Amino acid sequence: MLLWLATRYMNISNMEPVIERIEVPVQDNTQLLILTEQLGSSQQQVKFLDATIATLSHQVANLETDLENTQAEAKKQKGRAASAHTSKGQILEKWAPFVDHPEIDPEWEAENWSFMGNPIDYIVWDYRKDKNLNLEEGMIYIMDVKSAKAQLSTKQRRIRDLVKAGRVEWREIRLD
Questions:
Q1: What are the boundaries of each domain within the chain?
Q2: Which of 4, 20, 101, 131 is most exposed, with minimal Cβ within 10 Å?
């Protein structure tokens, strides 16, 4: 309602005033007094409506300012919440080798976890000391730790797809 009144006022205030000249033959002073009172009353109504519109326009401006401030604060709070989730995720990444979770084999020793950080969090070396047993049972796990509703990045998904497709190769590089 306030916005409509303010809009209406702006539309009206931008219009050229329409002044219509009305000539009324006056037969006596009583009729002249009545017309003068009507004119005065109309002028008072115009002043009252102008004051009301000004007040409403001021209220609308205040509400718009409040809305902008509220939206800015909500954006800041959303950023803070996202930052907190990121921090929580980073902490959980560091503690993953020590956490009891269905995807983590309890026989994996923490010292066999190598933290990579980016784009993959860990490589877990589940190897056996006996060469033949190692070839039969040993595994290398490439893992990424996520918390809450976090998703793999595009790069992480591409790496996951390559690993699952067996597109992994060992290379030994000697630098002299």
A1: 2-12+27-94, 101-164
A2: 20
